UniProtKB/TrEMBL annotation:
Transmembrane segments: 104-127, 163-178, 184-205, 348-371, 391-412, 433-452, 458-480
Organism: Micractinium conductrix
Subcellular location: Membrane
Protein name: AAAP family transporter: amino acid
Residue ranges of the region described as Disordered: 1-36, 502-525
Domain Amino acid transporter transmembrane: 38-262, 340-495
Length: 525
């Protein structure tokens, strides 16, 4: 394509020229992922779930008690749908721009100033979350020690929260924070999902016997409650699905043709194509006529659209794009490959949000039914006896969640620090040891805060009210507004971007051109 047919492609090519340096280059692991096939769809689902499962988990029964069980279920479903939409919005823009991180995406579309604001919000949000993980970890381990050996009551040095935080933080959390990609943490992310399932099972195990009792007070369980607590519980549900800081990186690392659950048709088609590949390898070309070659191209494209990476490999082996027999169908296959990744990402997001939402509904509902009208605190596990076997299992799994969620939330903060450094320097910066120094610095700062405070409620207010709303709703909304503005005047937008690409001068992609900005101001006068 030439001319103005594809201005995005022209700008992307201009970005790679030596006269068009990017403000925020891909992270050091970008080349590594370019060589690899990419992260699989199941591992990406586990990563998104690990990003979402965190601090608000234990407060869900409290939220359901404040809103009522029916309203709590409805709000959970609504929040899940809304945040899945915002996650998909970020993934769509990530495909369009090729950005490796949330900050890079915002810089590309909205400009450097918005990227700086987002980077600061990301650092603050991730910093507060990591501090909360350390605090919850110490509380869980102390309760376990008290329930098993009564060590906390004797004041043993190895049961003090400072020692627990130093030992597990430095021995487990810090080493897990050094990998430079989310896919490297896919294995530990599965532990977060297992921990969430175990916590839900433990609460349900303690709730089901009272529900079957004849004297259960169903009148104390309200389907809807309107009051100050109703609105105070909404942030708990909102931040329970937060994985926006990592979703762009998850999409960037995702394989080109993600398959969550391969269909029988996909397996059958690829089996047939594998047989054809063996014939080509032997030199026995089964295609005798041109129309048969075109038909095979159609089958390859169809198999590619079903999410099979083998089809693309077979097409490359056959050399169909070079023979000329496929013509425009080779371009169709390439386009299908690009869209297949986004379709796979949509399935990944829906699966991750759906699984998390179902488990949240069960936890909130069972926790509320277990206590009825009795006031429920912000930590549902504190409502049970510490020596209960099922609750001890839940505490173990909760501590495990904190251990594996800490590094997954530290990674976007480290990337945001890199983008801030690039924004200040206005050029590509090469700093040896930045990865290690930033990791140690962030860990040391979160460790200092966790050792000096135990007020988890204050931590929630700090990270939630100040930064979370902008990350979850604010920036995706601005991206949608920017896209709508481009759609209203596509010709002027494309011409300006094509001119900028041809000139080779630096201009952040997606920033409103001067001529288009003047036209918008005139239209609103």
């Amino acid at each position: 394509m030439t001319g103005l047919a594809d201005p995005d492609e022209a700008v992307l090519k201009a970005d790679k020229s030596p006269h068009y340096p990017p403000l925020a280059p891909p992270p050091p692991h970008a080349a590594h992922h370019a060589r690899k096939a990419g992260a699989s769809a199941p591992s990406s689902v586990a990563t998104l779930i690990n990003c979402a499962v965190g601090d608000p988990l234990l407060s869900l029964p409290y939220a359901y008690q404040q809103t009522g069980w029916a309203a709590g279920l409805a709000l959970t479903v609504a929040e899940a749908a809304l945040e899945a939409f915002t996650l998909i919005t970020l993934a769509r823009h990530a495909e369009r721009t090729g950005s490796p991180s949330y900050s890079a995406l915002v810089r590309t579309v909205l400009g450097g100033a918005a990227s700086v604001v987002l980077s600061l919000a990301t650092i603050a949000f991730a910093f507060g979350s990591c501090c909360a993980y350390l605090i919850i970890l110490a509380d869980c381990v102390q309760l376990l020690l008290e329930g098993v050996a009564g060590a906390c009551s004797t004041g043993a040095w190895w049961s003090r929260r400072e020692f627990i935080i130093l030992l597990l933080g430095t021995g487990v959390m810090l080493p897990l924070s050094f990998p430079d990609s989310l896919d490297a943490l896919a294995g530990v992310s599965l532990l977060a999902l297992a921990g969430l399932i175990a916590i839900v099972g433990s609460v349900a195990f303690n709730t089901l016997p009272p529900l079957h009792a004849s004297g259960y007070a169903w009148r104390d369980v309200a389907p809807l409650r309107l009051g100050p607590g109703f609105f105070a519980s909404l942030p708990i549900l909102v931040y329970g699905f937060q994985s926006h800081t990592n979703v762009v990186s998850v999409f960037y690392e995702l394989e080109d043709r993600p398959v969550l659950l391969p269909s029988l048709r996909t397996l059958a088609t690829c089996t047939c194509l594998s047989a054809l590949k063996q014939l080509w390898a032997k030199g026995d070309h089964p295609l005798q006529h041109e129309h048969e070659e075109e038909q095979l191209c159609t089958e390859l494209v169809a198999c590619a659209s079903l999410g099979s990476g083998q089809a693309a490999a077979l097409a490359a082996t056959a050399g169909l794009a070079a023979t000329g027999g496929c013509g425009g169908q080779a371009e169709t296959a390439q386009a299908a490959q690009l869209s297949a990744k986004l379709r796979g990402m949509i399935r990944v997001v829906c699966t991750a949000v759906g699984v998390t939402g179902v488990l949240y509904c069960l936890l909130g509902l069972f926790g509320y039914l277990a206590f009825g009208s009795k006031p429920i605190g912000p930590n549902i596990l504190d409502m049970y006896p510490p020596n209960d076997a099922a609750i001890q299992v839940a505490h173990v799994m909760l501590a495990l969640i904190q251990l594996v969620s800490y590094p997954i939330n530290l990674l976007p903060a480290r990337a945001a620090m890199w983008h801030l450094l690039e924004a200040v320097a206005r050029s590509r910066v090469q700093l040896r040891g930045f990865h290690t120094l930033s990791t140690l610095g962030l860990y040391g700062a979160t460790l200092a805060v966790a050792l000096s405070t135990t007020d988890l409620g204050l931590m929630f207010q700090l990270i939630g009210g100040t930064c979370g709303a902008g990350l979850i709703f604010g920036m995706p909304g601005l991206l949608l507004m920017s896209h709508a503005r481009q759609q209203r005047q596509p010709a002027a937008w494309a011409a300006e971007r094509q001119h900028a690409a041809g000139a080779g001068a630096y201009r952040p992609r997606g920033r409103v051109p001067s001529s288009l900005a003047a036209a918008n101001r005139a239209a609103h006068r």
